[in-house]
Amino acid sequence: MRIGVVGAGRIGGNAGRLFAQAGHEVLFSGSRDQAKLEAAAAAAGGAATGSPREAVEFWEVVMFSVPWRAAEQAIAQLGDLDGKVVIDTTNQYGADGWEELPKPAVQVNAERMPGAHVVKALTP
Length: 124
Hints:
Radius of gyration: 13 Å
Structural class: alpha/beta
Strand order of the largest sheet: 3-2-1-4-5-8
Helix content: 25-40%
Number of helices: 5
Strand content: 15-25%
Shape: globular
């Protein structure tokens, strides 16, 4: 399976490495630091790197693993998510800690991702 990982931090980087070790094709994207993407790709055995839009356009599953404060901006870079499976690992931790939302974070993100099949993973 081809999996695009948006966010190469602790969760996205480790999950992408594990996906690659399990035999999946992985593309890392969504970091402001290209060196961090390259390091995650190298740790995953030479996975690809690209833009968040490429993670969506060329991959069957998208793992969305960015900090909550960056989620809205990252989603705007994804492009058309119609019919895509999105694994959402975000939690509403902001600069001042846990942010109260009127609904679960996965519902907030699902509404921001029309047409996607959003599933929540790795909740606190």
